[in-house]
Each structure stands twice: as structure tokens, then as C-alpha cells.
Amino acid sequence: MRHNKNFNHLGRKKAHRDAMLANMTISLIMHKRIFTTLAKAKALRMYAEPLINRSKEDSMANRRLVFSYLQNKYAVSELFREVAQKVADRPGGYTRILKTGNRLGDNAQMCFIELVDYNEALLAAKAEGAKKSRTRRSRSKKAAAPAVEAPVAEAPVAEAPAAE
Predict the structure, then answer these.
(1) Measured distance CA(111)–CA(113) in Å, rounded
(2) What's the pLDDT tens digit per position in 105-160?
(3) CATH for 14-121?
(4) Rounded distance, CA 28 to CA 51, Å?
(5) What is the pTM of this model?
(6) Which of 29, 71, 114, 163 is positioned for an S-S bond with 33, CB 3.0–4.6 A?
(7) Residues with Cβ < 8 Å from 13, sequence gap 6 or more?
(8) What does DSSP assign to residue 82?
């Protein structure tokens, strides 16, 4: 029976799952974007976002608590320096999951998980979209109807003389 099992165990024991999520969180912090399965990305979001939230207040207690989860001093320093500055004014939702399709071998759903404020392409598109004002077009009945084609002028056909 299910009975209040609130998260995906990912087919692993607790120690293996914790180690995997810690390693994925370190990779996410260091590289800002990782490519993984959708189930792992959703589990990673639940694991990483509270740690990112802790980094907004730089205190020794928070650094030690985050280090107890990650066990990587380079990732912790990166998190408390660069990442914390980017997410300082954001109230939550520090990661974004972008689905990329299914894996060829086993048809698993694949995706990118990335830190929201680090996607330069999306930020540039958003800035350009703010500059450009776009208009919405709606389809009217006239536009939906096919255009009436002009009759094609037929070339005069020379008739063959009738045989007598």
C-alpha cells in the first residue's frame, strides 16, 4: 500500500539516493545546467531548492548546514557567492525544468534542469521582448475563409479544320 509516501524513491536505497542527489546538486551549482531524466530532475528540485534558499543568508550556520548535505567546499562557496547574489530578490522557484523528449534506449523522459537566472539565451530573449511591442492577431471569419482565386485566362486554342 502507498500510505503517505510523498516522494519518488527512484529505485534506490536511502544512502544511494542521497549521494546521487548531492552529486547532482553539486553539478547543478557548478555547471548551472544539467541533462537528466525527468523523475531525477523533479527529485533534485525538491533537494536543491531548500539549499539554495539557505544560501540567501550567508552565515556560518547556513554554510555548515549546506556543507553537511553537499560535502564539497567549492560548490558551497560557489553557491554562497555567485548563486546567492543572483537569487537574492527571488522568493522561490530557483530551478527550471525543460523537457527535451525521450531517450533512445529506454524511452525515458529526458530534460534539462537549470538555475533560472543563469540562462543567458532566455534572459536576452526576454530583454528583447520587452523592447519590442508585439501585437496579437486574431483570426476572423474573413481570414479563415479561403481566398477566391481569379479565373485563369484561357489561351485561344486553334481548332483543326474539319475533314470533309
Answers:
(1) 6
(2) 999 999 999 999 887 777 777 777 776 666 777 776 655 555 556 666 666 566 66
(3) 3.90.1030.10
(4) 12
(5) 0.73
(6) 114
(7) none
(8) I
